[in-house]
Amino acid sequence: MAHVNVFDTTLRDGEQSAGVNLNRLEKVEIAKQLERLGVDIMEAGFPASSQADFDAVKEIADTVRGCSVTGLARANKRDIDIAWEALKGGAEPRLHIFIATSPIHMTHKLKKSPDEVVEKAVEMVAYAKEKFPHVQFSAEDALRSDQEFLVHIIEKVIDAGASVINLPDTVGFTTPDEIGRLFRYVRENVPNIDQAILSTHNHDDLGMAVSNSLAAIENGAGQIEGTINGIGERAGNAALEEIAVALEIRKDRFEYETGLVLKEIKRTSDLVSRLTGMQVPGNKAVVGRNAFAHESGIHQDGILKESTTYEIITPEMVGIDSNRMVLGKHSGRHAFKQKSEELGFFLNEERLKEAFDSFKALTGKKKEVTDDDLFAILTDTQTENQDQAKYELKAFQVQYGSINRPTATILLTRPDGEEVEKANTGEGSVEAIYNTLDDLIEADVHLQDYQLSSIGKGRDALAEVHVQLTVDGVKASGRGSAQDVLEASAHAFLNAVNRTLYRRTQEAYQKVQV
Ligand code: KIV
Ligand code: ZN
């Protein structure tokens, strides 16, 4: 079996999904989970795009030791210099530099001739190579580029120091047969191709991203790029978990394997879904809620007789059975700490106390506290921005009856520490809460989207709410979890508002930096 490198871009291309806005702490938590999943390379962001992205990439590069951390840069010295500042503390600093090579992009976007593009690419790869031990070059929109031109530019950038050549299907336009032919052609016609690894990066606009990635692997790609749950620009990227499981299940057909720890797939998928607010469709391959549910009588009968009749992937393989009852109301701090560490969370004393208090509060309401509940508590604690002045929910009460107009009364602490209380009504309980919060918050807030889901199963499962708001005209997303749906709804709303407040302070900080 030949090894294929996994290049995860959940934190860069994935974060470019509409409506997704992860903060630094959330990015770090996802990065730590990607490390546990065993990715070879993680693209932590685009450092030159903002101060916030720079800070997140730097913290991830300085924290993660188990894989190479990379960041994106356009082909210019400023982007490369900023990326170096963010990445130089990493275990294996790597730069991902790109320039478009298709006629459409060169003419209309770059307004450069093919020769100028080659010159720029070569100059910038050579410049990056003076700093970075590893430089990856991406020929943006490669699948709509001229093949002769690709062969030419690839040879030149390898000579300039690129050790990975990525051929992205930027607009999700290609087919398995076509991408296979391109990879073969490049392998057979670029004279120095043995000095580089070929990489494939596919978007899912026509629903073929995973198939295209597999075809590229069969034709010489030694690296696959993608995201967890397939999130990303427009229709998203190739879903890494699907590629890894396809290679594993169809070992008879593909002679390639990734080093991913397949048992970490479900937890990684859940974490990315929770923190981004992008729910996984029930029928999604490998990680969807229904991916292992057998509904028809004939199928159930077959499964009972012999599971392989209708089940090609076992839930255990991707970590779906790992949600056990782990701790109960009599569990002490020591057991809690030990279990947290088993799940990969090494909390400082202050955060440990906070997480333990949340756990204790939950055991008062919920019979069984599972791995998934604990994971949710621990990520919430780790991603809570403690240094920020914010709106905090102190107490609330909702009166609901089928013949009365629902009324919410809310006690809130404002960012300046003042406690305020108000009541208002709405058509439903959630609307009553949101109308009241709207009255208490000193900003113009509008709800754009509301999604409710549960963490785990059963009547006493935790509720999780994701909202999209505009706060003074700025888009913001927020999430909140609690055992009660209404409380989770209130937390999600305040979380979105607090994120915009924080972003405003970041913007001020950015101006000071410039
Ligand atoms: O899709 C794409 O072309 C990209 C590049 C930046 C690699 O994401
Ligand atoms: Zn992309």
Total domain count: 4
- Alpha-beta content class: alpha/beta
Query: What characterizes the major β-sheet?
Result: 8 strands, parallel, barrel
Distance between the termini: 50 Å
Q: In the CATH scheme, what's the topology name of the largest domain? A: TIM Barrel
The shape, in one word, is: globular
Question: Averaging pLDDT over every residue, what do you get?
Answer: 93
Strand content: 15-25%
Any idea what the radius of gyration is? 25 Å
Give, in spatial order, the strands making up the sheet with the most strands. 2-3-4-5-6-7-8-9
**Percent in helix:** 40-55%
CATH class of the largest domain: Alpha Beta
Number of strands: 18
CATH architecture of the largest domain: Alpha-Beta Barrel
Number of helices: 16
What low-confidence regions span 5 or more consecutive residues with pLDDT below 50? none
Keywords:
single chain; TIM Barrel; 4 domains; eight-stranded parallel barrel; 41% helix; globular; binds 3-methyl-2-oxobutanoic acid
Can you put this structure into words, describing what you see?
It contains 16 helices and 18 strands. The protein has 514 residues and is of the alpha/beta class. It folds into 4 domains: 275 residues, TIM Barrel; 28 residues, no CATH class; 50 residues, no CATH class; 122 residues, Double Stranded RNA Binding Domain, CATH 3.30.160.270. The chain has an 8-stranded parallel β-barrel with strand order 2-3-4-5-6-7-8-9, surrounded by 7 helices. It has a 3-stranded antiparallel sheet with strand order 13-14-15. Helix 7 packs parallel to helix 8 and helix 8 crosses helix 9. The chain is globular. It binds 3-methyl-2-oxobutanoic acid and zinc ion (ZN).
